[in-house]
Amino acid sequence: MPTVVIPPLMRKFTGGEENITLPGATVREVIDNLESRYPGIKERLCEEDRLKPGIAIYINGLLTRGSFLERVDTDAEIHFLPAIGGGVAEPSH
Amino acid sequence: MAEKKEYKVIGTRPIRHDGVDKVTGRALYGADFQMTGLLHGRVLRSPHAHARIISIDTSRAEAYPGVKGVVTAQDLPEAEDRVADLGEGAVNLKYLCDNILASDKVLYKGHAVAAVAATSPHIAEEACTLIDVEYEVLPPVLEVRQAMEADAPLLHESLKTTSMGEAADEPSNVASHIQHKLGDPEKGFAEADIVVERDFVTGTVHQGYIEPHNATAHFNQDGQLTIWCSTQGAFTVREQVAEILQYPISKIKVVPMEIGGGFGGKISVYIKPVAALLAKKTGKPVKVLMNRADVFEGTGPTPASYVRVKMGATKDGKITAAEAYLAFEAGAYPGAPVGPGAMCIFAPYSIENVVIDGYDVVVNKPKTAPYRAPGAPNAAFGSESVVDEIAEKLDIDPLEIRLLNGAKEGDRRADGPIHPRIGCIETLETAKAHPHYTAPNGKKHHGRGVASGYWFNIGLESSVTINVNSDGTINLIEGSTDIGGTRSSIAMQAAEVLGIPAESVNPSVVDTNSVGYTAVTGGSRTTYATGYAAYEAAQDVKRKMSARAAKLWEVDEDNVQFADGEFSCINGKEEQISFRDLCARLGETGGPVVGSGTVNPGGAGGAYATHVVDVAVDEETGKVEILRYTAVQDAGKAIHPSYVEGQIQGGAVQGIGWALNEEYIYDDEGTMTNASFLDYRMPTCLDLPMIDAVIVEVPNPGHPYGVRGVGEVPIVPPMAAIANAIYDAIGVRMTELPMSPDRLLKAMGKI
Questions:
Q1: How far is B527 from chain A (nearest CA, A)?
Q2: Quick one: DSSP state of residue B528?
Q3: For residue range B698-735, what is the model confidence (pLDDT) as tens digits?
Q4: Which CATH number does B33-138+211-260+266-298 carry?
Q5: Topology of A3-82 in CATH?
Q6: Cβ distance B292 to B210 under 8 Å?
């Protein structure tokens, strides 16, 4: 199952747990399952059907486009990180 | 994915495709653009760093002979207080619009307030003096730590600190707080035999591109808006203008002219929407040009910052823990590059216990804009100085301690992701073996310093189309504006696939109606991502040309192979035809061949650099002279080594300027007192030795040829390398940039 690395500033949702393993074949499924286990966390990460501006997803170390449709492998490591501001690498589409 | 093979085109040094036009002065820049009936625009800027706009009366200016139109923020569609994702990044639209033309407050000296279109630039300038603006002047806040204080004047009454999606209750100048944490820093520091902690301050620095911003806009009778301009990304101009004017992107065409430097500073828009507003109001094409003072005062510099770094190590040099506090000035609106700074600060090292806190803070200065590896140089000045101090205190060679702790494939970065194949160790080993590092350096007040740096590089979208010509050449259509020779580095990747010389490719940078979406020339992405798109487009051409050869020989396509520019038949027939000869037979085999490639690659390989510098410090004047400079960098694969060397040298030189001379100097009211190149001191060739650029090649597995971006990382190490060299020369740790003569004299106790 994919592993989500919880950002330090959001670990209060997980009781301090850093790595959460949970099912999901897409980013959307992983986030929904995260929300089921830790209610309220999705609101911090998402607005409507997309990531909040200012938050980026890295899957296996690679910056993705932030799409909820992005597929994740069973052994994927997912990071939610502050998006790179300052005009250098924010997913735009 | 990266191929390890000998290349025919890649790695060679052909003359750049735009070279003749550039050296003969025939290349057309934005300021050269002319149209019948062209009007000239001029922007009125705020004389105050912080003030409320009470009223703007444009009537006297409108009545002035020759004036055809005046615009203010009232002419902009009402901006929503929402965040839009643009090519430039996520932007709050109200902030974006207010930075174009201030609506309720001016937030820095030079903030645009109104603009005039007139029949001559002189009339437009004169008319600006006739616009009456009544201000309520407010106290400015000009320094990041002051801006973070609880009783600091607020720039935005509604701005609240956000931390990973959660907003604070009270308004603040701190727009956001980010944090990365790895392991147990407290435990790591407890394991250390030595702990070094220092504060660092860096000044506000401009990219210093030679060509000022420019834009000419024209509305056709059918409502089609065309903008000719200098930009790092025609598509992001289109997106930003569309959002600011609330105008459909399908009705906007952006034509990128040649660009005289950008370094990140020509991604944000400033006068392009203003030119469009004036064009709409007057019904005429309008050209707006900035002068140098406009550029300094009205466009984004890179931020000043306060950085605190603490690192601990065992007696044998193993770094056990690291901590950083980064507070960056965003300027008038949120968006300082503190995120990249936090990502990069400890990336040259494998450290188990790390905590990094970053703060994005608004101050009464121009809204910051990207500048070569934005955020990373500020951060590295702190971390690389502290590493040097640890090495010195432990009596370990400064490159040796970096090798001992150097980041490798499989190590986890402080922000979480695991490094793929990287070349950190290789750049350190190359620097250590370089004759510069082993040369004697023992004269009084001479010193040697080293520092490393990291920049992650980015991918993003790129599109390329290739049209095959009947004479064996190809026309390569791309959307990446060419700042550093990328026409050639992109063309060479297509040429390599097709087995043709680089000179047989005619690359063209075209407008937003003429090529698929292409993100900005920035983030060191162009040779990587647009080169990747060119590779894919050339593969498409190869497939289609193979089909033509098959048709010619009446065999299945599977029976055609292509190598070294020759198609051959592998089913026993002795058929062979060169790419060039087959091009001449397209008409009889089915007509034109066009290939296309679109990419959005996620595998941009991070780049490392290690610099070695020798300095001499003049004890009398405090002047630092650069005696010798060697910059080692991992390029993955250098497509055109001359342009890689050029990027390395350019980045190092800009870093030297940042280290020794460059800064915005403000008076107490927030007026920049050195807004000209006479007073804002950039280094010239007279100040510098030849920069010895050394290319290391550790292929990036995320690119067919192993390319890593090269344009940004060379500006990361210079400040710390020079500070470390100064320490070696005079025994004083410099912790504030620039390390100008007066600061040196103060540090030496001379004044």
A1: 16
A2: I
A3: 999 999 999 999 999 999 999 999 999 999 999 999 99
A4: 3.90.1170.50
A5: Ubiquitin-like (UB roll) (3.10.20)
A6: no
Q: Which fold has domain B305-457+605-747?
A: Aldehyde Oxidoreductase; domain 4 (3.30.365)
Q: Which chain A residues are within 8 Å of B343, Cβ to Cβ?
A: 84
**Interacting residues of B746 by C-beta distance below 8 A, sequence separation 6+:** none
pLDDT of the residue at B80: 76
Q: Tell me whether residues B339 and A82 touch, CB distance under 8 A.
A: yes
pTM: 0.96
Q: Quick one: DSSP state of residue B706?
A: -
Question: Is there a contact between B360 and A79 if contact means CB atoms under 8 Å apart?
Answer: no
Query: What is the rounded distance in angstroms from the CA atom of residue B302 to the CA atom of residue B373?
Result: 10
**Which residues are bridge partners to A55 per DSSP?**
A82
**Contact list, B600 vs chain A (CB under 8 Å):** 65
Query: What are the extents of the domains in chain B?
Result: 19-27+459-599, 33-138+211-260+266-298, 305-457+605-747
Q: Inter-chain contact A86–B87, Cβ cutoff 8 Å?
A: no
DSSP three-state, residue B230 = coil
Rounded Cα distance between B379 and B311, Å, is: 14
Place of tokens 């050449």: B473
- Written as tens digits, the pLDDT of chain A (93 aa) is 999 999 999 999 999 999 999 999 999 999 999 999 999 999 999 887 788 877 888 898 887 766 788 899 999 999 988 776 533 433 332
Q: Which residues of B touch A86 (CB under 8 A)?
A: 89, 335-340, 368-370, 374-375
Q: Which residues of B touch A5 (CB under 8 A)?
A: 416
**CA-based torsion, B716, B717, B722, B723: positive or negative:** positive
Paired sense of beta strands B252-256 and A3-5, if any: unpaired
B188: pLDDT strictly greater than 90: yes
DSSP letter at B205 equals B
pLDDT higher than 90, residue B744: yes
Flag whether pLDDT at B4 surpasses 70. no
Average of per-residue pLDDT across B431-458: 95
Chain B positions in Cβ-Cβ contact with residue A54 (cut-off 8 Å): 83, 90, 162, 165, 176
Lateral strand order in the sheet of B174-182: B166-171, B160-163, B174-182, B354-362, B319-331, B305-313, B194-202
Common-topology check for domains B19-27+459-599 and B305-457+605-747: yes
**A92·B89 Cβ contact <8 A:** yes
ipTM: 0.90
* B684 Cα to chain A: minimum distance (Å): 28
Please give, rounded to a whole number of angstroms, the shortest distance from the CA of B716 to a CA of chain A. 15
| pLDDT value for A61 | 84
